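agent: user wants the structure for MAM domain-containing protein from Dreissena polymorpha. delegating to structure tool.
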Amino acid sequence: MLYDHRYHMKGSSVGQLNVYQIQNGLLTCNLVWSLSEQQGPDWLSGQVPLNATVGYKVFFDAF
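agent: tool returned. relaying tokens verbatim.
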């Protein structure tokens, strides 16, 4: 399964964007996608492969 998302990372203070997947019932999360630094002036598309055999949550962490 692929999770599609759009992101915009332009500017002098752009840091990092991470996407994590947490399996339901587990306390650990897996980093499934990461990007850092400026990526240009346009909105871009990202695709994240997810293990969807059980329930899960996806969360974004940006700094």
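agent: one observation worth passing along. Strands lie at 2-7, 16-23, 29-36, 44-49, 56-62.
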